């Protein structure tokens, strides 16, 4: 989840009966959806002794403070581990993992029944998932081909707040509501909901 530390586990398994020493070069970078690297956020090297048929785990932690300011709107991090067996130069294994961080900070609540030409109130709650305060918060609400920009107060670390939004649907059928939340520390956290508008 965006705003939280990421914990990964690399599992090394020696399938042979010979003792092996494995050198592991680990790195993590923020990337675009095209897989192009934006910034390297972590680099670590370790070596692991593996006995006959032995399995060992390497825990890797990427704190929010490492990735927060380098993350793009794609919210992707690529982690690689290059594993080489000592004294066997040709034996290398590359392990890759792409992590897509989840946004959990927008919740849209709609009444059970929405009727055409009758005013309806929605509850939009939004949160700061970060361990630090955020400023210059803006909600962009898109509905019925119209956009409303709402400037919000500063949010403390991990704070959740809500606003109420009233509108009157002018036709029956499905309506798409989109909410886009941005501030000075992150942008484009999105929430969607489809509203079914019934006849009166």
TrEMBL record:
Does the UniProt entry include the keyword Endoplasmic reticulum? no
Keyword Calcium present in the record's keywords: the answer is no
Q: Which UniProt keywords apply?
A: Transferase
Write out the GO MF terms.
protein-glutamine gamma-glutamyltransferase activity
Q: Which InterPro entries match?
A: Ig-like_fold (IPR013783), Transglutaminase (IPR050779), Transglutaminase_C (IPR008958), Transglutaminase_C_sf (IPR036238)
Question: Can you quote a single GO CC term?
Answer: cytoplasm
| Occurrences of domain Transglutaminase C-terminal (ranges) | 2-86, 106-196
Q: Which Pfam families match?
A: Transglut_C
Q: What is the residue range of the signal peptide feature?
A: none
> In which family does this protein belong, per the annotation?
Belongs to the transglutaminase superfamily. Transglutaminase family.
Q: What is this protein called?
A: TGM3 glutamyltransferase
Top-level taxonomy: Eukaryota, Metazoa, Chordata, Craniata, Vertebrata
